[in-house]
Fold this sequence. Notes:
There is one protein chain. The chain has 263 residues and is an alpha+beta fold. The protein has four helices and 18 strands. A hairpin with a 2-residue loop joins strand 14 (183-189) and strand 15 (192-193). Helix 2 (67-75) crosses helix 4 (234-257).
Amino acid sequence: MATMRNVLAHSIRLVSMLLAVGASAAKDGEERPRVREFQEPPTIRVLGTSARFRLEGGEGVEMWLDAETLGALALADAIACLPSSVVATRLPWPDIGSEGGPGAIGAEWSPAERRLHVRMGSLPLITVQLPDGGTPSRILLRHLDRLALLVLRPTGGPAIWVWVGTLRFVLLVPDAEQYLLCEVEEARVGSQVVEKSALLQGLSVSRLDEAGDVIVIGRSPAGEPFHHRHRVCAADLEERLNRALGTLSRTLKIEAAAGRFDR
Length: 263
């Protein structure tokens, strides 16, 4: 027959087990916080060979460019883009002063149709339709992280490649300073692991089409775990950059026409 002492001891062990299970469940719940999502898009900082001039491109795009890139933007009558969805790799570009050739990208201008046909050898890549109004003589072509200024003959034919440049990109996560005092256990841009310092100062990406959601996992200053996902749409980044380049090009041409660059 069980004694009162045995019953009491059994009850104490049962309560202790229930408390342990409850504590374990609470700990597990703490270690697996609900993912909090942020929809505000990151700012794009566009860097040229040197960040000598800083200009605002609008829509959360900062331009930190060199004089050559600004000059090409000012000279361009239109801007065309060879999307990464069409060509996802860096193809060879022609030598400066040439019209292209075998093994390199070429472009042919049709003034009657107002179309620029971009090809790789005989393989068509994309046709850019220019809007009516004026006769363009120079087009700035962007592909991934590269820019090229092309001169168009009035009578049409192969375009002449007169300048090429490169761009670098930094993504600035909105309110990144919230992580300054936090313990960041893991930070990623897509599948790329980054340091906390990069998260705070800006995330470098070689190509905008490779950018993905920013994931940040860690603990708050109070020790509470968090799991954040900052939504990043690569297509949105590309579109914002293209619009910003177009806006800056038009602004530079207006400034030059007004003679303000002489001041």
